[in-house]
Every structure is written in structure tokens, then in C-alpha cells.
Amino acid sequence: MESESEDKPNKMDFLISFLVDARGGSMTGSRKSGIRMVIPPQSAEQPVRITCRQLRPDQVLTLPPLSEGEGLACRILQLTPATFLAPVLMEVPYFTPLSDNREIIVLRSETGKKWTVHLNTTENSNLTSFMATSINNLKDNINTTTITTLKIPQYFAIISRPRQETISVGPDGGVVDSQLNHQVQCLFPSRSLTKQISVGISVFSINKCFTKEMTQQAGAVSPVITVEPRRRKFHKAITVTIPVPDVKLPTTTTQVERNPQPGYLLQMREDMPIETELMVR
């Protein structure tokens, strides 16, 4: 009986760190942190101690790059880098409200200097079967994001951002339509790209408190349209369709502004060059 209990996966709470071996287990952060890590059996090649700390932004050397409308959904996670033989799972709670026009993404950093978008593993059969056991029957009424990975980095950051519509576009071109605002569209003509890349478009409505002064002067502002990836040069001009603000005046002028770099404030936006072709419908 003792040998059988020793072979069972661990189910425990941890404060800052925990030790995991070939038995695997389900570890939950204490003090109501809500963080849970699930490691299936035979995933760890050797016993490894995993440390998990929640850091404030001022405790991180290089913060993840944030553009307009983006923000941290919870504290940044500092972990012990480790590699596993099979995917492991992390459940991280976030405390930002979500709506139809926002989404959660995960950024990772191996060294704390460069951040990239984390992509969850797709082959999770061992993890799925282990999650179905009684050791993982915990269900909390909190918003969580799920991370699956073979390699734990040094940092994870949970980001809330405006929802992006993303497609893969190559030399043949393509069209990206916004599901939130059907008037927003981005057309990539043929041969505007030389290789297949992922492109996206997002719509971010500006809060009325920032446009109050302009509204009092009979002005109006359209949503902010973002084309991803940022600062990319195309071999042919792309066409971005933006809804014109609804202003009930006999004569109006239209002004288009752009943000030269991600992370710039609204006050630092600049007018589009005169040679930019505009068509108002």
C-alpha cells in the first residue's frame, strides 16, 4: 500500500515553489493567488523545483511592449525555466473585465529582455487524460487563461488588448474584415508581400472623455484602426477602409492621423503625409 501511494501524483498547495518529479501532480498557489500548474506523470525527466512569483511592473527589468488599448491583465509571472517531455498546463487568473471587443493573449520572455507571443501546444492527449482524473476536479468561479507548453520560460505576461482579426496572407494578397465593425477592412493587393505572414486588424473605440473637447467644437472621431504587424513596409500600397465619423454639419473636413510606432500616446500622433491617397465615401 505504501508503494502505491508513493506512485500517485501529488496534489498540494504551494506558496512560492514546489518540487515535482516523474509522478507529476496538480499544484495550486496558496493565499488565493488562483494559479494552478498541472504536470502529467512521466513529464519531468528528473526532479525539478519550480518557483512561481507574481511581480509588479516596477520589479521587471524590461516590461512587455504595450500598444494603445493594451494593458496587463494581472501581475507578471516569474518562473524557473524548465523543459518537460510532455506538455504541462498553467491556469492563471486575470482580473480585467472582458467584452466582445477585447481578448486575452499571453506573452513570454526567456531572458526578460525580449517578449514574444506564446502559442499553446496542440498535442495535449496526455494532459487531457490526466485532467479527467479526480485529482484535477477543482473548479473556481474566476476568469482564468490556460497556458500549455513544453518549455517554461522565465516570464509570462497576461495581456488584455482589443480583439484582432488575423489571417495568413502571401504574395497572392488577401482581405481582412473586422467582425466588430463591418465598415473596417484592410485590402492587401497581389505582390504586396513576398512571403506568407500573419496579418491582422483591430478596432479600438476612443473613450468619450478623451474627445469631449473636440465634440464640443462640433467634431467627431472614428475608432482607432490598427494593422499588424507594426512598422512593416509593403511592396505595394495597401488599402485600409475606415468609417467616417458621423457629423451632422453642412460642411466638414476629414483629417487622418497615424501612429508612427506602437506605444506612442495619442498626443504624439502625426498627420498622414499629403501624398497619401484618401477616398471618402
Topology:
Elements: H1 2-7, E1 10-14, E2 17-20, E3 25-29, E4 36-39, E5 48-55, E6 71-72, E7 76-79, E8 82-93, E9 102-109, E10 116-117, H2 125-131, E11 144-152, E12 155-162, E13 164-169, E14 174-177, E15 185-188, E16 197-204, H3 212-216, E17 224-228, E18 239-241, E19 257-258, E20 270-271
Parallel strand pairs: 1-3
Antiparallel strand pairs: 2-5, 3-4, 4-8, 5-7, 6-12, 7-12, 8-11, 9-10, 9-12, 13-16, 14-15, 15-18, 16-17, 19-20
Describe the structure using short key phrases.
seven-stranded antiparallel beta sheet; 281 residues; mainly beta; 3 helices; disordered N terminus
Q: Describe the biggest sheet?
A: 7 strands, antiparallel
Kindly name the structural category: mainly beta
User: Unreliable segments (pLDDT under 50, ≥5 consecutive)?
Assistant: 1-5, 264-268
Provide the residue-averaged pLDDT: 81
Gross morphology: elongated
Strand content: 35-45%
The oligomeric state is single chain
H/E order of the elements?
A: HEEEEEEEEEEHEEEEEEHEEEE
Rg measurement, Å: 24 Å
Q: Considering DSSP H and I runs of 4 or more, what fraction of the residues is helical?
A: under 10%
